[in-house]
Amino acid sequence: MTAESMDKLVALCKRRGFIFQSNEIYGGLQGLYDYGPLGVEFKNNLKRSWWNSMVYERDDIEGIDSSILANPLVLKHSGHEETFSDPLVDCRSCKSRIRADHIKGNKCPECGSEDLTEPRPFNLMFKTSVGPVDDGSSFAYLRPETAQQIFTNFKNVLDSTPHHLPFGIAQMGKAFRNEITPRNFIFRVREFEQMELEFFVRPGEDEKWHKTWTDLRVDWWEKQGISKDNLELLEVPKDDLAHYSKATVDIMYKYPHGLEELEGIANRTDFDLGSHSRNQSELNLTAKVNKNSDSNAKLAVQDPETKEWLVPYVIEPSAGVERGFLAILNEAYRVEGLEGGKERTVLSLKPHLSPIKAAVIPLKRNNEDLVKTAKNLKNVLQSQGLGRVLFENSGNIGKSYRRHDEIGTPICITIDFESLEDGTATIRDRDTMEQKRMDIDSISEYFKETIDN
Ligand code: ATP
What lines the ligand 1 site, CB under 6 Å? Predict the structure, then answer.
């Protein structure tokens, strides 16, 4: 079951402290959101899960964390200055600006007028001036994808690690796009985070690796709790491919607002490494650069046996953190009828993604012994390093259970008077609502098994 409505997710996110409108007290700024106490935990858990699967669980991928501000030459030679644009249309009646491919039936989506301009390219990159003089002479771009700094660091990583083809470089971090119409909550925003892998392979092996990475990425999303029934693979038509791509498969998810891209897996060929190699001379770094020849081209590899130089092809699985956040939240959300006509909202998140891993709740908020026992247990569980554990001293067990169901806490542990007598506590499961008593001493092991599965 899913939320099926964006409004429900937006309301839950605000009410419980997952996501807030950015700059809200000054009226906000379109296409920007802030992540609250639970949102930051959830986002970090999602990113950690990606990093684990990409870097820690494999031996052929290294991670980096590069600067957000990019030298304009990088984005010139990557082709972004010339081609990273969307078609922009103006409505002459209501003056709104619309992305041409978002217009249905040649009518302005805001006012219905058909008095629209012809589409013209609108570059999506943000510019900012660099240094103390703001006369436009020295500027940088806010990177529109994390990928380019992976390419520019290709040699640095290769020279400092023991890898041969195939191998990859992974990076997570902010990217910025001046979207014409940010919309659908956090689905299309102007500042977002990407989780990108550039996987370098021998030319000729690229198509095999493209398929392998598509399968791996679908499996990973399933492990984050997304049902395969809500995912579809879309082979991007040749005419719609990005300027660097030979082939792209988009992993599409059935969002509440429709079927849309969650992650793109592109075969970028040797476009980026080749282009940056050819243009090194502009930076006076390397005089002799010659793609596909015996050269000292900056961004090439030498075959250890044949000694032949080659510019690798690259397969790029590129996922958006926000789009993952929204999809997983939608999947996890359900409203259940309870006895007596009541309802409860539950987020059935996978425990590794839950913002709060467990809540420890004393039955009475003012009872020193209960509070002390609960705090001790919280500290023991917290010290396991599996994520945030909450000491919840609300004094209202029912209310605490509802709240933790709604934010996806897998287990609640209640310390009551029996706990003080026999050293047991009640453990309540979020999904089944089943309660059982357990020795406090064995809760630590149970917690580890539940969260670390
Ligand atoms: P779209 O066609 O939806 O604009 P795209 O094809 O331009 O997306 P890519 O350039 O392939 O997107 O970027 C890789 C990933 O980054 C996307 O699959 C998406 O998850 C994320 N992403 C891209 N643009 C945005 C955005 N404006 N807001 C949130 N996430 C984004």
Answer: 177, 179, 188-189, 192, 194, 261-264, 318-320, 322-323
